[in-house]
Amino acid sequence: MNRRTSLAAGATATLVALTLTACAPSTGSPEPGGAAGEGCDGDAVALDVWSWRTEDVKTYEKIFDVFEEANPCITVNFQAHLNTEYDQILRTGLTGSDGPDIAQVRSYGLLQPLVEGGNLEPLEDLVPALGEFDDAILDGARGREDGAVYGVPLASQTIQVYYNTAIFEENGLEEPETWDDFVAINDKLLATDVTPLAVGARDGWFVPTVHDALTSAQYGGADFQQKLRDGDTDFTDPAYVDSIQTLKDLQKYMPEDVTGVAYTDAQVLFTSEQAAMFAGGSYELAFFQEANPDLELGVFQVPPPPGAALDHPVSPGYADGNWGLSAATEHPEEAATLLNWLATPEFGQLVADELKQFSPIPGVEFSDPVQQEMWDLYQENPAPYLLLVDYRYGDPVGTDLMGEAGQKLFLGDADAEQAAGIIQDGLAAWWTPGE
Fold it and tell me: Average pLDDT in the 74-102 region?
């Protein structure tokens, strides 16, 4: 069976099983009003903590056991909801009587409706450790109008290219140092039965991730972000158009009919070793390792092509979620105790070790060598995941527009200039450069 054109049935079945397991509701969560732990000499309180991370329920239960041992009068009821339903469930819950005390909340623009609705409490005075966090991370938790911090940052994500080291070795390939190296790698793999780049463009949200992984340095990364903020350019800028053209040029290295390939299909292509590279986020690491424990992984930043805005590669990154305090909680003192623990190195290290996520808490170390390499690359040459960081504050959001534009690009229904116009025209409904 040709690995470039077909998915392995066994790998697909494995992914389906993993997905169903991840989406299944937890049966082990403590019930609200749980009993006090050993050593509690006061009133027992149960805190409801909500999340969209259904795949992490068991791990979070393990993590919160550590907190409960040190705080025997407080029980944490961790409840996860489906990611696609969570935002609406949370908005309803925070305005009613049955909502959470503490909730995982989104970052940047998707946080603002909860802030503007008065559903969350500002935390700077309540959680002093926030003063030790990096300002760029805290930007993902700030109210746009008042600048107050409404969440304890949970994790940071980076975007780069994963590669199968065994496939590279079999084909005499090494990590690219130049754009020509990167193209040569893809060309050599194209001549084999291995798909060079595992990309699934049926799910529009994944397209801007792939675009930034492959071309952020080409359009200028943080420098381009600042030009947009200063009002010196917009998304029809030639450098940005060129980056979209590069995405189109690389389509020949992606699965055939890429707009018919789902994100999960792309994951299967990579974990079943039918594809050599995967342009994606650091959040993929734990899944990749679980889906195929024998997978040998490496990561690299894509070198910029000739004529790029930057002369060095970058890793885009962003703040991914926060812990927010419900304004309607009936247990503010106990909730504050938990929030302060969520800002400690102890919790951050558990996030790094158990969830394989980049905790933004100072002092956390990463024991997984691939995780450490991704973090080191980001620290050396960081860039923003642009459309997520700055362009989710209105409707339509930038990542959705890039998803639509990229799909049309791959289908041949739009060229690079037209795709850039889709993004610019959509954002113009609520955004003006420099404002």
Answer: 94
Where is average pLDDT lowest: 8-22, 216-230, 272-286, 323-337?
8-22
The answer to whether residue 3 scores a pLDDT higher than 70 is: no
Residues 203-230 as b or e (16 or more Cβ within 10 Å = b):
bbebbbbbbbbbbbbbbbbbebbebbee
If we measure between CA atoms, which residue out of 263, 260, 264, 308 comes closest to residue 410? 260
In tens, the pLDDT along 232-249 reads 999 999 999 999 999 999
Q: What is the DSSP string of 283-341?
A: GGHHHHHHH-TT--EEEEPPPPPTT-S-SS--EEEEE--EEEEBTT-S-HHHHHHHHHH
- Distance in angstroms (rounded) separating the CA atoms of residues 422 and 210: 18
Q: What is the mean pLDDT of residues 94-117?
A: 95
Sign of the torsion angle spanned by Cα atoms 225, 154, 325, 51: positive
Angle at 326 between CA 323 and CA 327, to 5 degrees: 140
Instruction: Evaluate whether 111 touches 322 at the Cβ level (below 8 Å).
Output: yes
End-to-end CA distance of the chain: 54
Q: Are 309 and 222 in contact (CB under 8 A)?
A: no
**Residue 183, helix vs strand vs coil:** helix
Of 388, 359, 372, which is closest to residue 154 (Cα–Cα)? Answer: 359
Global pTM value:
0.85
pLDDT of 200 strictly over 50: yes
Give φ, ψ of 47 to 5 degrees.
Answer: -100, 130
Environment class of 264 (CB within 10 Å of its CB; exposed 0-12, middle 13-18, buried 19+): middle
Domains (range + CATH), the chain: 9-17+157-317+376-427 (3.40.190.10), 31-155+320-362 (3.40.190.10)
DSSP annotation of 358: B
pLDDT of 230 > 50? The answer is yes
For residues 152 and 93, what is the distance between their CA atoms, to the nearest angstrom?
A: 20
Residues recorded for the chain: 435
